[in-house]
UniProtKB/TrEMBL annotation:
This is Formate dehydrogenase subunit alpha. The gene is fdhF. In the C-terminal section; belongs to the prokaryotic molybdopterin-containing oxidoreductase family. The keyword Repeat applies. Residues 6-61 form the 4Fe-4S Mo/W bis-MGD-type domain.
Amino acid sequence: ALVVPDKQVDSVCPYCGVGCQLTYHVKDNKILHVEGRDGPANHKRLCVKGRYGFDYAHHAQRLTVPLIRRADAPKRGDFSMDPDRVMDVFREATWDEALDLVASKFIALRDTHGKKSLAGFGSAKGSNEEAYLFQKLVRTGFGSNNVDHCTRLCHASSVAALLEGIGSGAVSNPVMDVMRAEVVIVIGANPAQNHPVAATWIKNAINNGTRLIMMDPRRSDLSRLAHRFLQFKPDTDVALLNAMMHVIVHEGLVDQDFIAARTIGFEELKANVEGYSPELMAPICGIDADEIRYVARLYATSKGSMILWGMGISQHVHGTDNARCLIALALMTGQIGKPGAGLHPLRGQNNVQGASDAGLIPMMYPDYQRVDSPAAIARFEQLWGMPLDHQPGLTVVEVMNAIKAGSVRGMYIMGENPAMSDPDANHAREALAALDHLVVQDIFLTETAYLADVILPASAFPEKTGSFTNTDRLVQMGRQALAPPGQAKQDLWIIQQIASRMGLDWHYDGVGDVFEEMRLSMPSIGGMRWDRLEREQAITYPCENEGDPGQSVVFTDHFPTESKRARFVPADIIPANERPDSDYPLVLITGRQLEHWHTGSMTRRAAVLDAIEPDPVALIHPLDLVALGAAPGDVITLESRRGQVTLYARADDSSPRGAVFVPFCYYEAAINRLTNPALDPFGKIPEFKYCAIRMSIG
Ligand code: SF4
């Protein structure tokens, strides 16, 4: 018989940064199906994750009661995900017992070992309000700025370059602006897999005459539709981009008026790219000099050119340099600050933009106000009513190193899974296991939760209300459609309970109250009242005054820097930290695949998605498979200097010879055991996109 929903709830998709609006159709506290809504970013479109990836919320493995590690539990280094062993390791507790233990241990560690002995990782899957309260708890309750989240693994280098160059870490134009562009460059990104609805707008733009230039070491679905596809050698982004700038300078294609009126530092950049002629760079990046010239001319001379980029740009030890080159390209040609011309780093998680805006980063308070700026310190000390630490805190990988060094001893992790997502994951797991006190708040017994002392059962995305900011700077309402299962609680409630037990005198009458406090401290959303957001459902920032409609294209007349001008920052070639050699002759590139999201905790528990992609796979060039003596479907082992995994081989000629691509969502073949924790010195982002490996059969 036809099952009729008893309610429909409007919300947004919990997965990627495109921020598709959707409607949950619910009966008896279960989601029956999901439908795309007419939101600004999706206009009723959804991808396979948005449409079918909802039933994780009803999965039998949901955490429904607080758990405390047993005194006689197996050693924490004895890592296992066997669900049958959970109660050998943990015992059930009441909320009061668990929360009292959490707070008392944090207080004891702080008072014994100092404020910097504690750290917190929040989540880009949580709401803006959760991110804001989480960082406030760390800064005021723990007493340091040791707070970070997965933006550090994602676009931290892009943000570092954008803040330095143009004074803002967010996009200049929404994705939809590709429809107004004559030329679109997509570099180091695979939108068809990772931002699928955004990819549909790019396809629509191509159908309307926009020329797409794909630039990536790997071929992707969009490459087939591209006007030009530049399959450059891995790790040679700066060589290719500097060569393009060399052409633009030498052929007089720069926008002199824009450079004179809106920028500083051009002469230095011009001198730097002089040494990067296309002829010199062609053998380095593997792209013919004439092709570099053609693409440079096309980009520079179009009426409107957009650049969209992803983690192929950001996740390198030279990630900030890569982004500096993209910014310089836009500035020297005046391809920014108008409709259809701009810079767009495609955000990964559905709220990584908002979580960063809300201050879930160690060097900035909300709205990117530096923690070492006297004016910002004064503002937040007054707002929060207590003295604050004036030193930037530790970033994600730095926290893991500090644990191993004994200086960080307690952690609060909300909705992140560093045991799977951190580079050199064996090292990260050892670090987490070495903590005196690890508290994990999540919806499943993740690989990180298994190492915890206390596990707090939290709410899934459809079980709470909050605001979420997509890749376009669009703040949107996510609404509660379900009650959490068992004794699981909403994350905002849990954070406040810990704060209260740590002596903080907070009073929030619901999520709207938290948003209103955020608004007071964040000029960019100053005009965005909660009741307006509830009514309008989606508002773009900057929105500084009430009644302000929000601004989707920014930098139209000035950049938000002290001088109001943007700055060119030259970049030179820096090689990857670990190059292939005779012992480890192949390059490992990690990333995502369409059906699974990040560490897989949600999508691998969504029946349709798991049925499509159930097993860990490595995508290997067919000729490399032949050279190994293996066939597609064979079990192979990949090994780096840091670890090894065993998984299935899949023939895939979209990867160049000598490069192996592996998604990082499979716990049984956790590929981050192999990746290199070497950091970009500016964004402190690890080099996920390049390390040396070898492979063998079996
Ligand atoms: Fe969700 Fe992103 Fe897919 Fe849209 S494109 S439905 S936001 S995963």
